[in-house]
What does this fold into?
Amino acid sequence: GTLVVVAIVVGVSVVLHLLLSRLIKRAVVRWVNSGRSRADSMTDTPEATVELQSLIMSQRREQRAEAVGQLVRSGMIIAVWGTAGLLILTQLGVNIAPILASAGVVGVALGFGAQTLVKDYLSGFFMIVEDQYGVGDLVDVGEVTGTVEEVALRVTRIRDPSGVVWYV
It folds into this structure.
């Protein structure tokens, strides 16, 4: 009986993983495609400028959607397979109460120890979602002025006019 229940948990987890991955992928594609018709609202600008603005905004929207989609995908994987692992351990007769209690204590300790790291990731998430700046933008960040080459959740790579690469 235990082996059958473990097989069912693994099967349901695989199906759930595939289903949620597909839903997340569709949401990302829908987000990317949602702004493609907004170029029509720029009526008083030359056609070449409208096309260039549309291309730039499309690329930035795609980058944002991919970054947020990857973050949601990672959270989904942790949730689905973490739950499956706990269910399997329970079926195998392992008492998971001490594991959950230890995880809670470790989580609190990591929360205090990694406050800056968590703050950086949250800031990066909101920076990407709010589209504060994107690849190709010219930015002035204190000592550094340059062109954004890469925007990630925690680090932004900037190249200054002399060619030096900065990580902010």
Remarks:
- DSSP finds four helices and four strands in the chain.
- The helical segments are 2-34, 47-91, 97-113, 115-129.
- Residues 36 and 55 are 9 Å apart (CA to CA).
- The mean pLDDT is 84.
